[in-house]
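ok so I'm stuck.
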Amino acid sequence: MVTLVLHPSGMLADVLAVQLSRSHLSPSMLAQIHSSKLFAPVALQVWLKPSAEMQYLYGNHVVKSGLGRITENTPAYTGVVVYSMSDIPLGFGLSAKSTNECRSMEPNGIVVLHQADVGEYLRAEDEL
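replied:
not stuck anymore, here's the structure
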C-alpha cells in the first residue's frame, strides 16, 4: 500500500503534490490522498445532487443528470474536486466536458470521470 500525504509547509502554494495515473498503479497498489481540504478551495469544483452521491462513492462516473453545479469556465480533461451539495469533499475526478459543453449535452452523458473518492477505503478495507 502506498500512502500519498500532502503536507503544507506554511503556505498553500508549497503543498507537495504527487500525480499518479491509474495505468502506473498495479492492482495490488492502493494510493490514498489525505488533506484534500487544503487544496479543495482553490481547485476547480463540481457539486453532485444528493441522488448521484452514492453512485459516485461506489466508483461510477458522474453523468449530467447528477450534476448540481460546476465551476464556470472549467476546461475539458482538467482535474476537479467533487463535492456534495452541502460542500463536503467526496473525491477527485477529471472533467470529461467543458462547462459550455455540459450545458448542451444529454442527461446521460458523462461529465466527470471518476478517479478517487472517500468510499474507496471502505471498499478496500478487507484488503488492507
